[in-house]
Structures are given as C-alpha cells and as structure tokens.
Write a structure and sequence with these properties.
698 residues; alpha+beta; 9-stranded mixed β-sheet; 21 helices; elongated
Amino acid sequence: MLRALLTSLTLALLSVYPAAAQPVDGGHARVELISERHAVVPGDTFYIALKMDMDEGWHVYWRNAGDAGLPPRIDLLEGSTIPKGALGEFVWPIPHLLPVVEGEIMDYGYDERLVLPFPVTIPADAERTVRINLLADYLICEEICVPETVRVTLSLPVGVSEPDTENGTLISEWVARAPLDYDGQVRIDTSVTPWKLSLKPSIGFDPSSDIRFYPFNHEISHPADQPLSFGSEGATLELVPDAEVLDGTLDGVIVVETENGARTGYEFSAEQGEAFANTSGTPAKRSRASGGSGAGVVGLVFAALLGGLILNLMPCVLPVLSIKAMGMVHAVSSGHEGEVRSHGLWYTGGVLLSFAALALAIILIRQATGTATLGFQLQNGPTVAILALVMFVIGLWLLGMFELGSSIQNAGSGLAARSGAMGAFFTGVLAAVVGAPCVGPFLGAALGAVLDKPAMAVMAVFLAMGFGLALPYLILSFVPGLSRLLPRPGRWMETLKQFFAFPMFLTAALLLWTLGAVSGPGAVAWAVAGATLIAFGIWLGKRSTRPLLKALAAVALVAGLVYPAVHAAGTAGEAAGGSSLYAEKYETEAWSPDRVAELTAQGRPVFVDFTATWCATCQLNKMTTLKTAAVQKAFHENDVAFLVADFTRKDPVIADELKRRQRAGVPMYLWYPAGSTEPEILPEILSKSLVIGLVSQN
C-alpha cells in the first residue's frame, strides 16, 4: 500500500518535472536527451531522442554528409544502468541539400532543429531508476566547421509505464519524417553516362512533383544536377557517377516534393540493370535548381575573399605582415596622406600580381599536365632554397645587421626617393608567395572545385583571395581615422623589429626542412653554405670602402643566393625520404590506390593522411591529433590502417586523387570505415575527439 502510494506520488511529480536534464550548450547547439516515457517498466522498448537546437545559420549532417562533414554519433558512458546493446540505431529523418558552393560542393543535413530518435530497451531486471549517460559528438558548420562534444543524461524511474505526451509527440513527428520503404521496382542503369535511376512505383508519381536522390555512399557526384523525366509507368533520374564502376547495388533515399512543399522519402536498394520501359521521356514540369556555373563561381569568389581575409591571421604570413605594419607606422608618422595611400596601393598591387601569377601558373600547368594543385611552388627545390635564403636575409636586416634606407620598406637609396613604394610592393609579393599554401583549412574544397573551371574563373577566384589578403591594409591606408590609431614610431619599434627576426629564422628553418624533403640533404647543406656566404658578403660590404672588396662582397651575395638554387635544381630527384620513408618515420604505410583496395577488401578500416612537409596545417594536425598517444591507441585497438600520401614532392598519382576528390591541395584526410570502399572526406582541421570518435564508432 505504502509502495503504491509512493509510486503514485513520484509519477505525479514527474508530470510536472520531466526526467530529462536541462539542455547542454555545446557551443553552437543546445543538446538534450528526451524520451517518450516519463517512467518505464522492465523489458520496455520505446524511443528516446537526441534533440539539437542550433544557432541561426549553423547546420549538422545526415548519415551521408555529402562532399564534406560528419554525421552526429553517440557513445554510452560509464554510470549508465543499461548495456550498450540496449541502444538501437538512429532513425534518420530525410535531409535537405546544403550547398557549400552552389553547383560545386554539396552536403546533406539539417539546420535549426534536429531530433534523432533511436529505440532503447530497458533491462528485464531493472529496478528503481534507469540512468542513460551518452557522449554526443557532432560536426556543426556555418562558414567554418567546429567539432563539438557534449555529455547528456536521462534518468527514468522504473515502475508503471507513463507516457511523456509533449516529448512523445515531438519524437513521433520526427520518426514520421524518416523515409518509408519504397513500394515498387527500381534499377540503376550504369551502361550509359550519366547513369539512369529508373523508378517504377506501384502508384505513379505526380508529374508536378520534384524528385531528388540522396545516396547512402559516394558513388555519384553530390553537387551535380539530377535531370528528371516522367513516363506513363514511373520516373527516371540522371545521375553523374563519381566512381568508375558501381560495386553491387546503389543504396539511398529518394525525396519526393510536391508543389505545396510536402516532402516524403523512400528508401531502396537499386540493382543494376536496364532502365524500365515507360519511365522517362517527359521532362519534369517544375523548375529545378541546377547550380549553374555562374552562380558557382560567384560563390567561390566570395569564399575566396573571406579566405584571403582570414589568411592574415595564419602563422606563416604573420612575420611578413609585421614588416608591412611597421612600414605603415612610419608612413603615417610622416603626416603625408599620399605616402600612406601609396603604401596601401603598392602593397595591394604586389599581392594581386602574385596571386595572378599563381593563377596563371596553375592554368598553364593544368593545360600541360591535366592537373594542378596549390603549393606546387614549394615542390620546386630552387624556389624553396631562394625563399629560405630571402627569409634569412630579412631576419638579418630585422636584427640590424645592415640597413635598407631611411624608410622601413626601402630597398636602397633609389627606392628611398620613392617613399618605400617598391618596398611595399615586394612585401605584398612575399606575403602572397608565403601565404598561398596556407589556405587549405578555409578554401581547400572551394579551390578544388574551381581548378577545373575556365581560366577566367580560376583567375577571378585567385584575385579575390589576394584582394582579401590585402584588404585590411588597403582600408587602413585610405581611412585617415583608422590610420591615426596606429602608434607613433619610437624606440619600441626597433625592439619589435628585432623580435620579428626570430619568426623569420624559424620560417627559414621550416623551408630548409622542406628543401631537404624536395631536393635532399645536400641541398640543405648548400643552402646553409649560401646563407653563410650571404652573411659574409653583408659583413664585408659594411666594413670595406675599397672597390675591390665591395665587388667581392657583391659576388659573395650573388653566389650565396644563386648557387644553392642551382644545386637544388640538380638534385631534385635525389631527395631522401619520399612517401615510403616519410610513412616509415611515422610508423604508417605509404598510400597507394592499390593498397587501399587491398585493405578495404580485407574489411579493415583505413585512415589516409594526404600531407606535405611544407604544409603548416598538416604539421599542426600531426602534433595536436594524429601523433598523439590517444589517437594512436585508438588506431591500434581498432586495427586501423594508417596510410600517408606524402605530397612534399610532385606525385601525379596523389595529384589525381586530390583532383578526384575536388581538393586544391593538402591537407586532405580520407576515412574508410570497415567494409566501405568509398571514403568520408574529413575537415582540414582535425581534433582528437573527432578522429577517436570515428574510429571507435567503426
């Protein structure tokens, strides 16, 4: 009697105070566990759900994220009173399209709110309270993508089953959004290109409807338009393949959208075969978004402009920009607005000319070889050697080993008369050359999409990126109120100038490391010898007035710069290391398409790191994620094959794979779950939780 009374009181309280905990703020989404029960009975099976309310403009991904992204996942944590097998799989609602770059890069997912239901079975011997503790991992994106992890908890008393009307209704609504089983016949005809997905339903389609196919895997091009036509017995979609052959069936969901906006999904597995008769011929009545090339290029130009702005914050560019900043301080202190504007314009001109030259080089390389990637300039030994020596010389200048003139940007008395204009110009050139390979985290996928477009589109995107890099200084130059905020010159500038010498030396060291990978240790030794010769020439030139010694100093400077570059060109094919030794250094295997095919055929999960010595983002990901003990342990425990594709030097096979995945360069990370022959493309910036979550879910 007393026990029954207590149970009744408990249920009465639960009707006012739900058992679910308060939502957890993951950063860009409020996440909570909700249940269709207030209280449960042993052996009961019902739905709970991961509920996510996202910030405006942010989105998460479907089970197949599309060209980039990762779906949400959950793990059962310690302290839970149910076994891991008690949790079922997510019931995925039908997604909608997420055009990252219209017509070029397409993802699938959800925004605003997502409710992911999944069944849970209460143990038959459960007593008192069932506690469910989950770790939810998800990638949430706007212009950038952020991996977030939250811990969510749900406690339910065991007693008399009591429904939660509010949450139960919400969960039911989202379960109803899941695709239905397709009632009819379906075939995929791969004998023609594009492939034809032939649909023969038991009840015909409304010709005014729109139909879109959402694949479970990556056999087709996600951003490509899917021309639709109807016949008297069904409909046909044309699909652009992204695989040479289709291995087995084509699995996924079609979403049928009526004129009033109602959407219904149907899940199927299409066998290969000839398209059904009378399922095509009449074009769809509704206008379908094709993501034309014009709109795609406009989106790419805008993305490139933003990427160029962000590039100002990258470590590889900051040392060069510090020189520009000090030059502006001096120009502002002169009190002549014309000189300030001249600095801004010349610097912008240097940046734009460099990015135009980079775009032209990519266009010419593409025309000659069929492929082109960002960072190609750092695969050239002479270029790397010269850049390393230039950084070393700039470091010596910043330390005060020699002077370039009265202005911080001057390059001798001839340039001094021009108020440092040419100095500002060459600072822009240097910022562009050093900064271009650092765009991967922001524009890797977008630039990958534009590299196959017409030459004018490539040029427009690269000029937009350069303009974004130069824009902050251009604004400072032309808005007097902003430029006056800069501090006045003083002794502090000499100290700061000397301090910035050390990032320059570190940049030179990184370039020497790259030079060793590209042209071998001999090239590094000659570059160091060249640096010594340059330092000797500077020392001799400062201390001598005799013409003969001045001439000897000039010869030393020229020889110190030229001979290391000549030697690097002659030893480009003798570099120690390469893909195999690089992989061995990190206790991995070297990547090749054949090796991936072997491993996936064995059913092993595979992680592929497309990297390069000169890629700063790649090295950061190694230090913070891939080479950490936690990630290596997860790889070992889950029998993950870790392959490395080293793009430090030119490699046409790697270049072809980057092109195939629509990436402009490294880094690129591919994850092949066990049993899958098609990879997921991961974000360019990794985290331990992201990688460990993927591996553990396998």
